[in-house]
TrEMBL record:
The protein, known as: MFS transporter
Taxonomic lineage from the root: Bacteria, Pseudomonadati, Bacteroidota, Cytophagia, Cytophagales
SUPFAM superfamilies reported for this sequence: MFS general substrate transporter (SSF103473)
Swiss-Prot/TrEMBL keywords: Membrane, Transmembrane, Transmembrane helix, Transport
Matches recorded under Pfam families: ATG22
Source organism of this protein record: Arcicella gelida
Length: 429
């Protein structure tokens, strides 16, 4: 039965459970901790020998993000197709959840100079987080009616923002007030925070796993899992080929998401390395972004009800263009805070509306939703790979993160042009 309150709450609770990874690991504490801990011992050089490649610690970080999402882009479509074939959506969601959470726990052992451990634990935490999100998103059209997609999607992101802020504030007390915890070092406080992310994620995910729809006990007949996984993937691919509006939206999403995700993942790195802002200023900035994002998610859900999803998303993408241009000229802490407020406002809207818009464009009565959302995820992950890679490459070539941020406007403009050709109403498919 769709729109069951307990099921909907269980669905939003997984956002509460996993979003601590997005905030603590990829946005707030880990991006600041990584360049400090990822140094070459005993020289303490920022130039690292990584499998024979000479990379700066900040470049290695951006490349690690790229590789993590590249692994997701290649593995998740096949795994999601297998899950649709076997009817084991929740099993695979759990598998990725535990991979990500355990990887976060392993980061506790990422001490100074142990950059191989830190890089791979971070990389696989991304794989676990991103893989579980595919299956989580695929429940949306299964548990709710279409008129509830925008609101439920916004509610899910809001739960994620709130949960992640609560845990981050707790972890901040360790980082900023170590005397409250027996005088532990700042590095140890950071590593404990990575451990708490894994624990939080696993514990709160249990509520979602218990109340979300059970896996099917009947799997499709014939062949083995992997072979039929490829067949399932091919079937959905051919169906998407005939859904012109859905295909056009995915192309637009690919480009504008390239810019948005790069800003989200590397914004703290920009503040610390380009503006030389202290850790406390960066973490306050991330908290500000999360709180403003709640308002943005709900506001743009309301706007979409009035003007349609496409126009609402277009307003957001145009805002991102101006944000990237403004970031090029930012020099002070207060200017960075003002910019972060704008980022938070459009971040909540672009994530929430993109997910609900795609859900509306999936054919009605579709049972293989995981396979459909895997294509959405491929666009999401590959665009993040290219965006973060290009950010690192432009930074490496020019020596300026400001040029990297300014370059992102190209992706937003291309996405906006394609989005203008996507009607808001599902009837136009």
């Amino acid at each position: 039965m769709k729109n069951n309150p307990k099921t909907l709450t269980a669905w939003t609770m997984y956002d509460w459970a996993n979003s601590v990874h997005s905030l603590t690991i990829t946005s707030a504490i880990f991006p600041i901790y990584f360049p400090i801990a990822a140094i070459m011992l005993p020289s303490k050089s920022r130039q690292l020998d990584f499998f024979g490649l000479q990379l700066e610690n900040t470049v290695l970080y951006s490349y690690a993000v790229s590789i993590g999402f590249l692994l997701l882009a290649f593995s998740v479509p096949l795994v999601s197709a297998i899950s649709d074939y076997t009817g084991k959506k929740k099993v695979f969601m759990k598998m990725y959840c535990y991979l990500g959470a355990i990887s976060c726990m392993l980061m506790y052992f990422f001490e100074e100079g142990r950059y191989y451990l830190g890089t791979f634990a971070f990389l696989f935490s991304i794989v676990g987080w991103g893989g579980s999100i595919v299956f989580y998103n695929s429940y949306l059209p299964e548990i709710a009616t279409e008129d509830q997609y925008d609101r439920l999607s916004a509610r899910g992101f809001t739960m994620g923002y709130l949960g992640s802020v609560i845990l981050l504030i707790q972890n901040l007390t360790m980082v900023l007030k170590p005397e409250w915890y027996g005088g532990i070092s700042g590095g140890e406080a950071s590593r404990i925070s990575f451990l708490t992310v894994g624990i939080w994620w696993i514990v709160f995910a249990q509520y979602s796993f218990y109340y979300l729809p059970k896996d099917s006990k009947v799997q499709k007949q014939g062949g083995n899992w992997i072979f039929n996984g490829f067949k399932e993937l091919k079937k959905v691919f051919h169906e998407l080929e005939n859904l012109n509006i859905t295909k056009r939206f995915l192309t637009s999403f690919f480009f504008y998401n390239m810019g948005a995700q790069t800003v989200m993942y590397l914004g703290a790195l920009f503040g610390s390395e380009e503006l030389k802002l202290p850790s406390d200023a960066l973490i306050v900035t991330v908290l500000l972004i999360q709180l403003v994002a709640i308002v943005g998610a709900y506001l743009f859900a309301k706007i979409s009800e009035k003007v349609g999803n496409t126009k609402s998303l277009s307003i957001i993408v145009i805002s991102w263009v101006f944000i990237c241009i403004a970031a090029y000229f930012v020099t002070t802490r207060n200017e960075f805070y003002f910019l972060a407020t704008g980022i938070g406002f459009v971040m909540g809207g672009i994530q929430s509306l993109s997910r609900s818009t795609y859900a509306k464009l999936i054919p009605e009565e579709t049972h293989d939703t995981a396979s459909y959302f895997s294509f959405y995820d491929v666009c999401d992950r590959l665009s993040t790979v290219i965006g973060t890679f290009m950010f690192g490459l432009v930074n490496q070539l020019t020596g300026s993160m400001r040029m990297s941020v300014l370059f992102l406007t190209v992706f937003f403009i291309i996405g906006l042009v394609i989005l203008s050709r996507v009607p808001s109403q599902k009837i136009y498919r």
